[in-house]
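Step 1: inspect the first sequence and its tokens.
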Amino acid sequence: MPATPADPTIKTRLLSRPVRSSLGTIRLAGLNKGGIGVGVRNHTLRTLTHYGLNYVLGGEGIYRDARHDDLPVPVESLEIFFPKIPHASGTAPGKVWDELWFEFEGPIFELMQRQGILDPARPVSLAKGRDYWLRRLTNLIPPAHLRHQTPPDAVVLHFAHVLTDMIHAGRQPAASAPAADWLHEACQLLSDEETMPVADPAAVAKQLGLSYESFRKKFRQAVGVAPGKFQLDARTDRAVALLYQGRHTVREIAELLGFCDEFYFSRCFKRRFGQSPRAFRKKNRGH
């Protein structure tokens, strides 16, 4: 009996253990290079008990389930797999693809499905700008030496935010899909820890050689939110890590992140996370 050929896929695990929180759980995440997917070649369907995400970084394939027959999955496609929906996703014989994948579940993702953000009728969409999305997806996983300092709620919420942005970008008309170069630079300037307090959206527009109004419209079309909102979310995401580390007062964090005062910072933080910075710190650090 001939031996079963070895799986040629080069697999890299991005999460060593699940990120569990009251909002939801990121079960697993990884990068596969030279993969073939599941079910397409042997004509079987896989059923998950949770959600899955597959972002195609290179190559192409197809997706199928009971409602969809062989949907094309070109490079830069975002696939969403839904709980209890049998499906197959993979490449044609002799072909491979590179993919970034996540498995996740929990209340926040169920809410996203009820709101139509996660839609079983639209399991495949295009999210152009692979360098940009690869950076955002991989950056939401803290480095190993910082993972114990980063609240799980913040990681899961950040993932839900990026996922929502990807889906909305994929539903924009093709002409307004993200252009990786300018968009990558804009997002880096707006969210970088070194430039965050000083690189306001108008300054970023000027650095990119655009008028502010043109930059604001292009950015909103590509990402789904205005540059000011994107930067504010990046600041409050950073604030979560600083609060959890416990090395700075609320006033110092507000100053570090470029807020005009701690009261405005507290209002922005509470609007996003449903609790004040001090309440968040007490809940997660006990003081």
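Step 2: inspect the second sequence and its tokens, then contrast the two.
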Amino acid sequence: MAIATIPGTTSGPGKRGNRKSAVPLLHMSGEATNQAVETDLNRAIIPSDDYRQMVVAARRNRASATPIVRYQSRTQPLERLQAKIDVVSVPNLTPPELAGQYTNPSEELSKRVPPMGSEKLFVFPDKTYIFTFETDISPDTISDKGKWSLNGDTLELQSDKDVTWKSKRVERQHLVVCRRGHNDELFLVEIGWNLSYFEENAKNDPEFQFLLDSLKREKAITAEEAGPLRKRLMKEKWQPKFYRRE
């Protein structure tokens, strides 16, 4: 029987393991389900069919989570993140400095595990954004779009009026951070669901869990590129009928 191993669990062969440690943003399909996914720390062996079901369930739970989470203290989320991994905030970027395509899974993460679907946040230098979402179940569509603002190290999203559905698949606030010593990179960490999930599951391999629960900037978006890219995304992926039944 094909097996898969996932990080962050402590059970051994023959045990189901801790279902709360299921990887939420990864997918194994076709031949990939017959490959072993491993880390060097505390591996648990489970049947690949069970692993697939756990992954899909986790993604569905995340998609239905309440999208708006706000905190009285803006330093609190950063302190919670830094308690688990050595990152620093990147505050007060200009729109051209922040603009880019932020992706999960990133290329770095995809080298470690087979990817499942994708989440992409396109942050444009004119302070608009588009978020696309896909799984092996749902098609690659725009689930949210609107305007963004930056308050210190916190990116805030506000949907356009024609985004009328509840489950936008992306939260309203994200910390802008980088790993210490990697000043050329940018990560967005959702302050609500993903930060809590990271705290709960970062015990054995926080670096790996950080990649799972963040959006990494894979490329910058210039002002010249923004217009054609937005036009293409809207033409190919804007399908509001897919979401309006929610």
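Step 3: confirm your contrast with the notes below.
Helices lie at 48-63, 75-82, 95-98, 107-110, 193-201, 206-212, 223-237. Confidence is low (pLDDT under 50) at residues 1-61, 63-75.
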